[in-house]
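Hi, can you check this record?
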Amino acid sequence: MHVPLFDMTRQYDTLKSEILQAIDGVFRSGKLIMGENVKQFEREVCDYLNVKHAIGVGNGSDALYIAAKAIGIGDGDYVITTPFTFFATVSCITRNGAVPVFADIDRKSFNIDLDRVEEILTTHPNREKIKAVIPVHLFGRTVDLERLEKIKRNYGVKILEDCAQSIGSEWVYSDGTIRRSGTVGDASILSFFPTKNLGAYGDGGMILTNNDDTNDFCRVFRVHGAKVKYFHEMEGINSRLDEIQAAVLRIKLKYLDEYHEKRIKIARNYTEMINSLSIEFLETPRVTGDFTCIFHQYVVKVKAGHRDRLREYLKTRGVETAVYYPLGMHRQKCFSRFGSKILENTDQACQEVLALPIFPEISITEVEYVVKCIGEYFKEARKC
């Protein structure tokens, strides 16, 4: 049996008529750039997340770069972020002339450890230069939003939420209030890369903010810095969400919560079945019944040097997997000028994490097969 890590074709089969009709509508309108679908999609995301402004851009990396600039990150500033993330989270700092400061992750959630963030904010030799914190809601699991707000308030730093993997994930406050990731930062970003929970059929991204000035800056910066065409107020870039992708995303947004529910159910099935095998070298993620985590990825920890061998074994059995991430950003060659230090939890995670196949349309039979193969690997490994 072949089990893909991710498969867009199954979702397309269920949405084909809606998608083709929407695309045909774009072509017939003759408005292919910054048309009505982009405007409507921005409004619909605002309503879905309960934020004031949403600005569509070309991709998630541009969203981070523009948003960082919009909240004032610039030359000589210091910005705290996680080393266990995709490159763009850190490059948006350095591309704006600032210095990344890496805080280690929490070993259970893989998210940035907010205890370490506060420690840096109080003890770093250049703490007065720390301008912002960029948390990543990794694999769809929400960072503690209530505490993020307290850090913002108590230390006077800006918060830029990286929600590339977490659209729709939630946090329950101590008073029972429920907020979605992307709603508490000075700015936040989304990615619509095809494999995301809300994925386009190409690149796409979005900036979220409740601040009018940040919104105005981003809208001008994304079109070469021109509020009026050919009259440039700043040196912006060309980064616009494509009209066709916006039309597709508007359709998928209607089904997003349904997709989340399916992912949570799949994650629960994985966890129950894997735990029933009682494999001492395998640690599964915590699964709840709500949207605290919407499982962009289902990531297990494989210990005692078994990760790469298990991955190769699964490959021979037709099961695709991935490693997010094999090397922390604090150890990347291009960031070596900022110094490379031991961040124990991140370094360990890079050696142990393994993402198993998950997408809304995966079948229970496929999940059972993946778990069966995992069990067979460890059964053989015990004999060695």
Q: What stands out?
A: Residues 23 and 150 are 44 Å apart (CA to CA). The mean pLDDT is 97. DSSP finds twelve helices and 14 strands in the chain. The radius of gyration is 21 Å.
